[in-house]
Description:
The protein is an alpha+beta fold. It has 2 domains: 8-133, Arc Repressor Mutant, subunit A (Orthogonal Bundle), CATH 1.10.10.2910; 137-189. The protein contains 8 helices and 6 strands; from the N terminus they run ααβββαβαααααββ. It has helices at 8-24, 35-42, 77-99, 113-118, 120-133, 136-148, 155-162, 166-175; strands at 46-51, 57-62, 67-71, 108-109, 179-181, 187-189. The strands form 2 sheets. A 4-stranded mixed β-sheet has the order 1-3-2-4. The chain has a two-stranded antiparallel ribbon with strand order 5-6. β5 and β6 (187-189) form a beta hairpin.
Amino acid sequence: MGASFVPKSTLEARAEDVRRAAIDAGVPAEFPFDVESTVEFLLEFDLNLGADLPKGILGLTNFDRRLVSVSGSITNDGRRRFTVAHEIGHIVLHRSILEAGLVQPSMFISESAAAAQDDSMEWQANFFAAALLMPREAVAARFGRDARAGRLVAPERVADAFGVSREAATIRLQELDFHKREAGGGRRLF
């Protein structure tokens, strides 16, 4: 049994609710968004960055110990931040079913993104993380003028602005349908 279907719009709204609650709790309202403080001060979980986790496991959340662990093997700051945001997604979206033992907790595994996408809980946590770190409105406010003017917005610029990996920025731009129509009807990412 996995998590029930949750529309993308609901996941984006939940991420925005968490971001606003964190800001109300004193997390700065700026980007890159401070997910570490959100875990510790809003959600009241301890955070272990640099955890000695089994090979291939990027992060996990222990609800009994109120602990979010992130692998010390992560060297990219954007990847680390995305992993923390992913774990926030599990806390916000899946806590009740994980604590009730209705499903086995998954671990965020680096080696098989495709397999993680097949698991609804992992997909939801990934989408939530992207929406928390790169909110639709913030991306549009920062890069919409360039896009409307036909200027390319490179994923690297989005990654730098929001403190995520290039891969996460590329995927988010695709999710937001942030592309340019080319003469032949094709699409090109901004």
